[in-house]
Design goal:
It is a single chain. The chain has a three-stranded antiparallel β-sheet, covered by helices on one side. It is mostly helical. It has a single domain, classed as Glycoprotein, Type 4 Pilin. The chain is built from one helix and three strands, in the order αβββ. Helix content is 38%, strand content 9%. It is rod-shaped and about 100 Å long.
Length: 141
């Protein structure tokens, strides 16, 4: 007895292969973009920690926190006299990993330093959540 094998048209085979390749590509792109967002969060946390340590060293030297972050890189930037004219960071990051400026506010005695996350707005959840430091947190927080 002879069994008939139904042949699948070549166009259907090509379409199925193309669909499979598209699905694999989408899965890979999603995995890469997820890893990229995790890397951005890690980078923002590292930059906040570096700036926090620099702010704390500045405070120990000068008895006050600077009015602006650029003083950490250029001690004469604000025009405010400083006790120790030195750089506290070798390179001042101007933007967080999402391209938004860091939020910094200080009254001289306390400060708040933040990256507003992927959405660039206060608050948020997940990658949109704020990454922050202030005068009361330790560098490890």
């Amino acid at each position: 007895m002879r069994t008939l094998v139904k042949r699948v048209p070549i166009a259907a085979q090509i379409a199925a292969t193309a669909l499979a390749m598209l699905l694999v590509t989408l899965i890979v792109v999603r995995a890469i973009s997820h890893g990229t967002e995790e890397a951005r969060v890690s980078r923002a946390e590292a930059e906040i920690a570096i700036l926090k340590r620099a702010l704390d060293r500045y405070y120990l030297d000068n008895g006050t926190y600077p009015a602006a972050l650029d003083v950490l890189y250029n001690p004469f930037a604000s025009g405010t006299p400083v006790r120790y004219a030195r750089r506290y960071v070798s390179d001042l990051p101007q933007h967080d990993p999402w391209g938004n400026g860091f939020f910094y506010e200080s009254d001289g005695k306390m400060y708040v330093l933040k990256s507003f996350g992927a959405d660039g707005a206060p608050g948020g959840v997940g990658n949109d959540s704020d990454i922050a430091a202030d005068a009361n947190t330790t560098a490890a927080e």
